[in-house]
Structure formats: C-alpha cells, structure tokens
Design goal:
By secondary structure, the chain is mainly β. About 0% of the residues lie in helices and about 45% in strands.
Length: about 100
Amino acid sequence: MLKIKKSDEVVVIAGRDKGQRGEVLEVRKDGRLIVSGINMVKKHKKANPNAGEQGGIVDQEAPIQVSNVAIWNEESEKPDRVGFRFEGDKKIRFYKSDGKEIVD
C-alpha cells in the first residue's frame, strides 16, 4: 500500500524536476504517480475527426516513481515522510517529523 494518495501535495526529491511541487492527479498500482505539472513530455497525437479532436504535439504529464517524491508538510514548509498509526479501528497517516495527522 502506498503512503501517498490522490490530491496530496508532493515535492519531487530526485530527477529532472527536483524541487518542484504539484498535486497528485492519479495513483497507479505499479507504484507510479501522475503529478500536475511534473515530468512533462511531448506526445504526438493523431487527429480524430469523429470525436472532433485536433492532432499535433501536446504536452502531458508522464508517470513518476513514488520513491522520487515526498509529501509536502505545510506547517514546516519542507518535504516529509509518512507514517501510519491505528486509533481504534481507524488507520491514520501522520507526518514523521512532528507526529501531526495528515488531513485528507
């Protein structure tokens, strides 16, 4: 199970986009994420006149490994690690640096 969820704000800690922040748009089962504005690639798209889509070269986000991102802690304004703890039957995510709960 991944510690990062959809709509979390993350910062890239390795690779070409190191230091950039973005929101997680999609979490895939293979341990990869699609993050808004991160790992942009050029895609050659074929036109589809039946659907009214225009062809050309478009920019889109490519998947990035979950190990190359860290969750962004708003209070400390730094990247942080995520931990789990159980309170009753609820599984709660928290920031490792200060122990505060991550609000979903």
